[in-house]
Amino acid sequence: MTSVAPSTDRPPVSAGPMVPHRYRVVDTRVELAEPRTITLALEPVDEPLAPFRAGQFNMVWSFGVGEVPISVSGDPTVAGPLIHTVRGVGAVTSSLCDARVGDVVGLRGPYGTDWDVSSATGHDVVIIGGGIGLAPLRPVVDEVLARRDDFGRVALLVGARSPAELLFAEELERWRGRFDLDVWVTVDRAGSGWHGDVGVVTMLVPRVLGDPERTIGFVCGPEVMMRFVANGLLERGLEPGNVRVSIERNMKCAIAQCGHCQFGAAFVCREGPVFTYEQVAPLLRTREL
Amino acid sequence: MTKTLTQLLTEHEFLGDLDPAFLDLLAEHARAVRVGAGGRIFTEGEPADTCWLVVDGRAALELGTPGRGVAVLATVGPGQLLGWSWLFPPFRWHFDARAVTDVLAVVLDGPAVRDRCEADPRFGYELMKRFTELSIHRLQATRLQLLDVYGTEIHDLRSAVD
User: Which CATH superfamily does the domain covering A21-111 fall into?
Assistant: First the structure.
């Protein structure tokens, strides 16, 4: 009888939905010193995940610590490492912020709905990000710029707490240099050395809206900020179905099984995170959710 | 082509669809002003007698504290209005204002506009509606600013618990 030894070179992962794929950190970039925010570039050790669409997220494991949902912040139109931008606020995210080149993390995904940038073809586009909310929107900017001629006027409005807490400063500088992209940045507080705007990001909306009826809005940031921005866009004439927001909830399984991310009747990990404002406006005003 | 004051007022967002007769009336008390970047627009404590309708550029409303520098409270850009202390007693500026970039504005003579409002209640009511709406928007924006939403947010828009 011939015995067959188990293969030692087979991938250590099965196709199970809860099993992470191993990814190696190939680059890190400090985005902000405080609050500590870094961008990780990741290459697959095992079979790579399926390609992501702008707005989707992955579950990211820091082995031995835990798993968190993090949106992909890289360019969906360019092949290369997977890019995640992480703000260190808890045990897992702080551990991920400590990752060094060569370290291995686990990834499951991509999950959730996307921004559906293609559906904005032929429309004006206004992209509004607040704080770390710019990270899930960077793929939208990249995708729109990759197909710039497919869209009408394109504007990017960015809000942050202070000039020192502006995310993606290099990209903002590059984007501001383009004639086909209208970029406005505002901060909540600043000293006299700041030459940009000071005030909430909603105040910038009137500057960029040309034809509200043919404008698609992409909004991401703290929920309160999104509510005010979305309402501001509606007041200016955008249709609720043309305003998209990205909702955050406590995602655990990411495959609509555990219910941790339930938001009304929706599972944010499956029906979201990107919703139209029309879908979620009543829920965003429900305190108990 | 140089625009007339009435054209500048007509196109200014704050005055929007104001009756043309009222716009002509305002134009009688208006002048175009340019302030170079860094220039002082008005100063805390001084008499407030002008209303600035910004046409181009960016102005900052500031509060300076001895030894603690200057805090920018808000900026005002094209289509926005700067200064309403001329509307109510004691008619003195509560903050400093400075041109961050070159500022082009239509400046209204505050006392003259006040007199017109008293003399013509319909004109006064139309103007006060706009100031009330503006002050509500500014108040809401200030409340949102005070919430410090970016300071309390969590690490990523997907995760509520880490």
Answer: Translation factors (2.40.30.10)
